[in-house]
Amino acid sequence: MNLSKKDKTARLVAYLDRKFKGRPIELDYAMPLQLLVATILSAQCTDERVNRVTPVLFRRYRTASDYAGADPAELEGIIRSTGFFRAKARNIIRCCSLIREKHAGKIPDTLEELVQLPGVWRKTANVILGNLFGKPAIVVDTHVKRVSQRLGLTRSDDPNRIEQDLGKILPPRRWTELSHHLLLHGRYVCTAKAPRCGECEIYPICPWREKTVYSREAKPARTARPVKRAAAKTAPRGPSR
Question: 165 catalytic, yes or no?
Answer without folding.
Answer: no
